UniProtKB/TrEMBL annotation:
It comes from the Bacteria. This is Uncharacterized protein.
Length: 253
């Protein structure tokens, strides 16, 4: 994953082939060949806090996962373009964290049909496109390419590559669902409704959840990640003197 800003034209381009995109990233003067140390006045840039998170993912020695990158974008409330590898093509997914929208030149159904476990992050850059209704109308894309962010986060958490807890909610903790959490419009099936109902009534550890019918450690972790990304999870960190509650449900607010 590259973290520096290229000058890829904004808009709704035809999907680029991965091989062509990789050549662009590494060409002389391209993002991989230079390090941006000074920001050009007026040029969109990644916030230092988001950049630090993305650098942490890259320095871990593993490819950045789509879910953790999107979670960082939402957590830092920054509008970015995440270039995803989908098969042999590159899909520019623009995330409008504050507006809870995404812009994607292919349908979200098509994106998720391509085995979300195989989606890979190739590059992250500041967004140039704007959300619907923005004063810069020339930078707003076609309406049918905008989609709600919430269902995408939910599906990627439940079906994507990441099978472990996001680091922000991992540790010696217990979990419960925040009162009034809105899960309307999301696919909640199988063992999920019963699990969510239990979490609304009391707090449970990951180990306890893994023993529920239809669950194991991976399924429990995926559900907790999904709830966290819906601003619907309360995390209680364990201490020798008891529990101290932390409202991780405030994500992205």
């Amino acid at each position: 994953m590259s973290l520096f800003e290229p000058t890829i034209p904004f808009g709704e381009p035809e999907l680029m082939r991965v091989s062509d995109f990789q050549r662009y990233l590494h060409e002389p003067g391209g993002p991989r060949a230079r390090v941006v140390t000074e920001l050009t006045p007026g040029q969109p840039s990644l916030s230092q806090s988001l950049l630090a998170d993305l650098m942490r993912f890259e320095h871990s020695g593993q490819a950045s996962e789509v879910l953790e990158v999107l979670a960082a974008c939402v957590r830092h409330a920054q509008h970015v373009v995440v270039h995803l590898q989908m098969g042999e093509s590159v899909v520019p997914l623009t995330v409008f964290a504050v507006d809870r929208l995404v812009h994607c030149p292919v349908s979200i159904d098509a994106l998720l049909l391509q085995r979300p476990t195989e989606l890979r992050v190739l590059h992250v850059e500041p967004a140039v496109l704007r959300p619907p209704g923005d004063a810069e109308a020339s930078l707003v894309g076609e309406g049918h390419h905008y989609h709600p962010l919430r269902p995408l986060l939910w599906e990627l958490a439940l079906r994507g590559a990441r099978s472990a807890l996001l680091p922000e909610i991992a540790g010696q903790v217990a979990y419960r669902v925040a009162p009034g959490v809105d899960l309307s419009g999301l696919r909640v099936a199988g063992a999920l409704p019963g699990a969510i109902q239990k979490l609304q009534g009391d707090r449970y550890t990951l180990r306890e959840m893994a023993e529920w019918p239809g669950f194991d450690t991976e399924r429990a972790s995926r559900l907790l990640n999904a709830l966290y990304l819906q601003s619907g999870l309360i995390v209680s960190r364990t201490r020798p003197t008891g529990f101290g509650e932390s409202f991780f449900g405030a994500l992205g607010r």
